[in-house]
Design a protein that fits this description.
Distance between the termini: 51 Å
Mean pLDDT: 82
Radius of gyration: 35 Å
Strand content: 15-25%
Structural class: alpha+beta
Length: about 525
């Protein structure tokens, strides 16, 4: 038979809570490597924040559609590389990449445009002078981009088309006058339908290239390949889609003995001589690559090129020491908040205050386990904004206890009930208020999470999560513990519960109501 409204079997509720804690910590210690520490954000463990500024050939503002597409591609690159805890957000016409830990070098490479094109080599010259180093910011000037395009992509550099494509009369002079530079203004802004003057990665050879005959979008897969007997260095192995495979087969069949350039963001990464027709579409990009470079290039090519070119306008590194100092400050703030709540509850509520302290400690226990598991399952990282959310949640949780305890006092003071009889009735009324309050808090957190970005999302997430866990603690721990205390003769003593003053006031009110009735009987 079910107990009356407000009356529960506290042992069952406490047992269920213990089961939840056991399951959570079993997952913490026996899954995901068993490391019981949450993932920390850049402001707590240090890391790198890179700001990529979009640029267009004519200097106009990039479209929102292109920016969103670029952000999505960078996010895909992040997921493919496996950089955990990375955040990619739009900030005006900039894309901000935040990478916690010691993976900042990878973040700086994520903004590479990666526009790959296959072009026929029409002429090549060896470069004997080192590449020119332009003044900072000169390559980002729209005028420099247009000037470079006019000089290096002039249509009269070539004659003919298709199988008859050849260097034009002015090509030799233009190639001789062309100098390699460490910062190419055409990077990501070249026209694939026009010829191109370009240099290799080392700046030791420059080329006259025909228009792009095969785009990188036709790549089906790209993988890093280790050195072997027939190839001394690291390479990137490519496989093409059906249309690209046919285009590559036709080109290699007709151009045996000629060179084809693999051009990445206007830079020639490899220009091999075609030894035989390649009919199966499997091709290698070779060059002076290290293992890390081939892996980065393969990942970038695999996940697609960006619709815009970007420059790294700012790269901020947060040291681990500063992160630890921030974490310490956050923990101190949380500790002070907890201490103030503890002191207030112990002074004002006495035994009920002790139950509050126990409930908050158990709440912290499950919050920590959930943080560790969320870090493994969804790569959730705790940052300073999240710590602030938890500190505010201490007040939310304590507020639920205050609502319950004050309702108990109301039942004793106004209804003249004992501590034991006031608990079930007080809980029924307090429960509605607690649910309504937490529902409003959770809804506010959800809306804030949906419309916010960056650190504010972390704040909203932790606040909403703590609100849900608050309900678990209040229903499965605080209420059952109060029920147990109310059934104990020792623990329910007024001097321990702090309810003595309320019970005395209730007794005085009962006496005051009885006095007039007694006085009337004597007069008659």
């Amino acid at each position: 038979m079910a107990p009356p409204a407000g009356r529960i079997r506290p042992g069952r509720y406490l047992g269920f809570f213990v089961l939840i804690v056991v399951v959570l910590y079993a997952l913490v210690f026996f899954t995901g490597g068993g490391k019981p520490t949450p993932k920390l954000g850049i402001d707590l463990q240090g890391g790198t924040r890179v700001t990529l500024s979009a640029r267009t050939p004519d200097g106009s503002a990039p479209s929102r559609e292109s920016l969103n597409q670029a952000r999505q591609i960078i996010e895909t690159r992040v997921n493919g590389i496996g950089v955990s805890g990375t955040e990619v957000i739009l900030d005006g016409s900039n894309i901000v990449i935040t990478v916690p830990g010691e993976q900042g070098d990878q973040a700086k490479k994520l903004g590479q445009t990666a526009q790959l094109g296959f072009r026929k080599v029409l002429d090549a010259q060896t470069v004997t002078t080192p590449p020119v180093v332009p003044p900072p910011g000169q390559g980002d000037d729209p005028a420099a981009i247009q000037q470079a395009k006019a000089a290096r992509q002039a249509a009269d550099l070539v004659t003919g088309s298709g199988d008859t494509l050849a260097a034009g009369p002015a090509a030799a002079q233009a190639l001789a006058a062309f100098t390699c530079s460490t910062q190419d203004p055409l990077r990501g802004n070249d026209d694939p339908n026009l010829p191109l003057l370009a240099c290799d990665q080392t700046g030791t050879e420059k080329y006259l290239l025909g228009p792009v005959f095969l785009k990188g979008t036709e790549i089906d897969n790209a993988m890093s390949s280790a050195p072997a007997q027939n190839k001394p260095g690291w390479t990137v192995d490519l496989s093409f889609k059906s249309e690209g495979r046919q285009t590559w087969a036709d080109f290699t069949t007709k151009n045996i003995g000629q060179r084809a350039a693999f051009v990445l963001d206007t830079q020639v990464v490899s220009a091999p001589t075609i030894q035989s027709a390649i009919l199966d579409g499997n091709t290698q990009i070779s060059g002076n690559f290290t293992q890390a470079q081939t892996k980065d290039l393969a990942d970038i090519l695999k996940y697609g090129s960006l619709p815009l070119s970007f420059t790294s306008s700012d790269a901020t590194t947060v040291s681990a020491t500063l992160g630890l100092a921030s974490l310490k400050a956050g923990l101190i703030a949380g500790g002070i908040g907890l201490a103030l709540v503890f002191v207030y509850c112990l002074v004002y509520y006495r035994l009920l205050g002790v139950l509050t302290v126990v409930s908050l400690a158990l709440s912290g226990l499950i919050v920590y386990a959930v943080l560790v598991l969320l870090g493994r399952w969804i790569n959730f990282t705790l940052d300073l904004a999240g710590v602030a959310g938890f500190i505010i949640a201490i007040g939310v949780t304590a507020d639920s206890f205050v609502v319950f305890f004050e309702r108990l006092k109301d039942e004793i003071r106004e209804g003249g009930r004992s501590f034991r009889s006031a608990v079930p009735r007080g809980w029924v009324r307090a429960r509605r208020t607690i649910l309504a309050s937490d529902a409003v808090m959770f809804l506010a957190s959800a809306v804030l999470y949906a419309i916010a970005v960056g650190d504010v999302q972390g704040f909203a997430f932790t606040l909403g999560m703590s609100t849900v866990l608050d309900l678990i603690v209040v229903f499965l721990v605080t209420h059952p513990l109060v029920v147990l205390a109310s059934k104990s003769k020792f623990l329910s003593q007024p001097k321990l519960t702090g309810l003595g003053g309320v019970q005395t006031l209730a007794a005085q009110r009962r006496s005051a109501r009885k006095v007039p009735a007694g006085a009337g009987a004597k007069e008659s």
